[in-house]
Amino acid sequence: VATPGPVIALRWRDGVLRALDQTLLPWREVELELRSADDVAAAIKRLAIRGAPLIGVAAAYGVALELARDADALERACEMLATARPTAANLAYAVRRVQAAVTSATGEPPAEAALAEARRIEAEERSASDALAAHGADELADRPRILTHCNTGALAAPGRGTALAVLAELADRGSLELVLATESRPLLQGARLTVYELGRLGIAHQLLVDGAAAGLIAAGEIDAVIVGCDRVAANGDVANKVGTYPHALAAAAAAIPFVVAGPTSTIDPACPSGDRVVIEERDPDEVRAIRTGPGGDLHQLTVAGTPCRNPAFDITPASLVTALVTERGVARPARGESVLGLLPGG
Ligand code: MRU
Questions:
Q1: Contact 194, 90 (CB under 8 A)
Q2: 53: Cβ below 6 Å to ligand 1?
Q3: Residue 15's pLDDT band (boundaries 50, 70, 90)?
Q4: Residue 292: what pLDDT?
Q5: 230 is catalytic
Q6: What is the C-alpha separation between 24 and 283, in angstroms, rounded?
């Protein structure tokens, strides 16, 4: 049972990026010290730092770290960090912003220009979290039992997160009775991280295996589903943690709301539809075995060498999304024009 208080997933101190190693949670709270773009890219790849907005912010700081070591490293560092994982839109969004800020800086050392932009992005994502929490809570005010998938809290985004920020806001307002958190196989972001955060927030919750969700939705035990997002295409299709799409199908069949929450930095206007999103395929060993417990022991789950597929994300078509909740308002239904209208200047 976790200690109460806010989770600090990332902090910049004395020229070093400190990150809670999420692969060790909830058993051990170990802070990594990241000093270069390579350190940050490696932490993002192995999901020590994860969640779409959080990897964007970490990558932005990663550019600043690298420029402090080598003022000419901008191109190389940006390329490496922007491609550390392919699916979340926020990674390239944040890296390209830092790159533009450094390129256009006059008289300011590159590392300082990068750090200032990284801090700006983090601050913007933090206030986006608060704003989208309020919009999302308005949306789900009369829904006491809500299911969520993967981890979308302070471990996934600055501030209180995305979907989990909405749940925290509903709890503050007194209308939330129960959060149903799915395990989110294979890496158990729900079982390890969401449960850890809900415990710290003092929010009543139950953990489910992923396959239990549809049956409970059909049985009327769940009033709404809320998830985060890794990339929202221009037509409103949503890429999110693998296993999201079945929850959306079940929600539609039971006529309960399926709400997606995320900052507008996750919307990719250049991606026309979900079939154009690059879905990260991860190591099949993540399916064959599970690394768990305080010692990080590896436990085999199947016959050695079993062929596996391990897509880390899936696509939920816009037609199944009741509402897309962002800091700039709500697209309901979430379709082309309503989604793009949420973007600055949209
Ligand atoms: O592979 P992960 O753990 O980085 O996947 C995270 C998710 O899918 C979240 O739902 C998503 O990033 C949105 S939450 C901020």
A1: no
A2: yes
A3: very high
A4: 86
A5: yes
A6: 18
